[in-house]
Amino acid sequence: MKSANFLNKIKSPEDLKELCINDLNALSAEIRELIISTVSENGGHLSSNLGVVELSVALHKTFSSPDDKIIWDVGHQVYAHKILTGRAEKFSTLRREDGISGFSSPAESGHDIFYSGHSSTSISSALGIAVANKLNSKPYYTVAVIGDGALTGGMAYEALNNAGRSGTRLIVILNDNEMSISQNVGSVARYLAIIRSKPEYFQMKARTEKVIRKIPVVGEQTARAVFNIKTKIKNSIYRSTFFEELGFRYMGPIDGHNIEQLCEALNTAKLIDSPVLLHISTVKGKGYPYAENNPSLYHGVSKFDMNSGNVPVKGTDFSEQFGKMLSEFAEKDSRICAVSAAMALGTGLGGFSEKFSDRFFDVGIAEEHAVTFAGGLAKGGMIPVVALYSTFLQRAYDQLVHDGTLQKQKMIIAVDRAGFVGEDGVTHQGLLDTGFLNSIPGITVYSPYTYERMRFDFENAVINAENLTAIRYPRGGECALPSGLKPSENDFDLFFEDGSALIVTYGRIAQNAARAAIKLKADGKPCALLVLNKIKPINPKAVESALNFGELFFFEEAEKSSGIGQSFADLLLQNGYKGNFSHTAVNDEFAAHAPVLSLMKKYGLDSESIYKKVSENLNG
Asked: What pLDDT is attached to residue 90?
């Protein structure tokens, strides 16, 4: 690796102000090398970050953060931004426990304006800041950086519609990393785009319009005619009427890897007294051939060999098994469809999409639409399966209620990455789905911890369910229960039916609870174990079984205040339970990024912590 001649000198964005274009290009190369080497060791999002290195440098060269606010849509592309805003020396701790986050994080730095792990939010939040600046007479700029993928989210269009005529110092940068300038608009348009991005162009344009309007009698009419002719010509070349009809001044497309052009375009945008949309073209994985050639593989990647680009082959997991199972069922039942919100590979639907292309629908980053669209499929006689990460399912709560269970729609929600997800941190932990799913009348929720149990739950939903069914499963592979313990096809399983104490849990915590129970028995403190396979509604017989124990310990990988433990406790009280009830879960906080095993231990959900909690209480 080359020595970092410039990076060592960058302690804050202000240090960029005196660097020339050649120096900025050299700095970009150093940043790119640092990102590649760090992600190869720590894992993380590589392709997207390599694609915005020059943009990050140009933004901090042109604007004065944090007075000028730079807001990144889906903050997984902020690595260069973090490096330029005083975190270069800590960058080796990226995604490590107690290290810097892989997403934008206001807790880390005043240069990170919002937590942003979910898509299509940047324009809305940026507009709010821009309007606040206007109301408070603050002369600052607000910049929203949004990718073409995030622009598939409906919230982005709501914000664009609201922002265009706001009269604010708002600059929206559309980072287009899917289309090539030469293929889509041609060399003439590219040349004109560069000319239009220069400050001299807008200064000359403003002076010309001012002179024309001063011509007696016909000046105003002439100005309008010139404008209309110019607009028609420009739109025939750029096809950019959409943004300008919303009230934005459109600029671009600009080469997103040319710092000089980027800086000129950004400085020009600052001269315009209305919202600007700057369209730039970038390449995912830029500067690292392996990522350029296969950006999807290196989108979110684990530790890999930097020199060869080899990514370790991961073992089978719930996502992969779910995809295979879904294909098997779809082979037998032509009603089964799969719906993804731009996460087909992440949710294991790659094979399904190829084998059943006519029954696979990727709706883009639009979880709300995905669920309601599935409701339409269900109403038309299909059996839609919507596969979403738990953290992204949060965005579709109203659709689950209004367009799902209220309509008594037979549809299946595959809740991937339920529970702790680890290094992606606060915006991605799947700790809320049990609470909000549990609040919906008429829904059925399963929480399998083995592939076999997941298959049974899915089959049950296809054959027997009459309303919406959610099947939630964790990131990673299935849990291995101790020998002799096998989940049944029942709504719950009761193991070790002796002793005066009972551990109640569900999902992958069952593995930890079983090991704790075995150790307790070996210590002469026998403890039964109740595993809930269906967590909504809870089978009344599971509650009846628990009434026989004087000490009850509920453990769950979810938020305590809205978890299943609260529902179980309520049912116990309704049935006259007089014993002691203890509830261990995540207590009213967002879990930070850390390995899953570390999070389990932190929140008292690993086998040793469960053993200790029960043992100490039984001693007392």
From this structure: 95
Q: Give the residue numbers spanning the domain of 133.
A: 21-198+248-293
Whether residues 397 and 518 share a domain: the answer is no
- CB neighbourhood size of 22 (10 A): 10
pLDDT of residue 186: 45
In eight-state DSSP terms, residue 419 is: B
Per-residue pLDDT, 481: 83
Residue 411 maps to which CATH number? 3.40.50.970
Distance CA 288, CA 46 (A): 9
324 plus 409 within the same structural domain: yes
Query: What pLDDT sits at residue 238?
Result: 47
**Cβ atoms of 507 and 478 closer than 8 Å:** no
Q: Where are the beta strands (DSSP E) in 453-533?
A: 469-472, 492-495, 501-506, 527-532
In this structure, the number of other CB atoms found within 10 A of the CB of residue 160 comes to 22
Nearest CA-CA partner of 554 in 543, 544, 568: 568
Q: What is the pLDDT of residue 220?
A: 56
In a domain, 16, yes or no: no
Q: How many domains does the chain have?
A: 3
Tokens at 183, concatenated: 């293929």
Long-range contacts of 2-9 (CB under 8 A, 24+ apart): 2/29, 2/30, 2/33, 4/30, 4/34, 5/30, 6/30, 7/31, 7/34, 7/83, 7/88
Triad 573, 578, 584: Cα angle to 5°: 70
Q: CB of 191 within 8 A of CB of 261? A: no
Report the pLDDT value the prediction gives residue 80, as an integer from 0 to 100: 96
pLDDT of residue 62: 97
Number of residues in the chain: 620
Contact 276, 170 (CB under 8 A): yes
Answer whether residue 243 is part of any domain.
no
How open is the CA angle 394-395-399, to the nearest 5 degrees?
Answer: 100
Query: DSSP 3-state assignment of 304?
Result: coil
pLDDT value at position 184?
A: 38
C-alpha gyration radius of the chain: 28
Identify whether 157 is part of a domain.
yes
Q: Are residues 162 and 30 in the same domain?
A: yes
User: Could you tell me if 510 and 600 are in contact, meaning their C-beta atoms sit under 8 angstroms apart?
Assistant: no
- Running along the chain, 620 residues long, what does each successive block of 10 average in pLDDT? 72 93 96 96 94 97 97 92 95 94 94 92 96 96 92 90 93 78 40 50 53 57 54 50 85 92 95 92 93 89 90 90 98 97 93 97 94 98 98 97 96 97 94 97 96 96 96 93 86 91 97 96 94 98 96 97 94 96 96 96 98 88
Structure tokens, 525: 């403190």
- Nearest alpha-carbon partner for 412 in 514, 298, 336, 479: 336
Distance CA 278, CA 172 (A): 6
Pairing of strands 412-416, 383-389: parallel
User: How far from 379 is each of 11, 361, 374, 437, 467, CA to CA, in Å?
Assistant: 58, 16, 9, 21, 11
Burial readout 545-584 (b: 16 or more C-beta within 10 A, e: otherwise):
bbeebebbbbbbbbbbebbbbbbbbebbeeeebeeebbbb
Region label for 327, one of left (φ > 0), alpha (ψ between -120 and 50) or beta (otherwise): alpha
Q: Which residues are catalytic?
A: 284, 367, 395
Q: What does the pLDDT read at residue 297?
A: 87
pTM, to two decimals: 0.88
Q: Does residue 225 fall inside a structural domain?
A: no
Q: In whole angstroms, what is the distance from residue 290 CA to residue 295 CA?
A: 8
d(CA 276, CA 466): 50
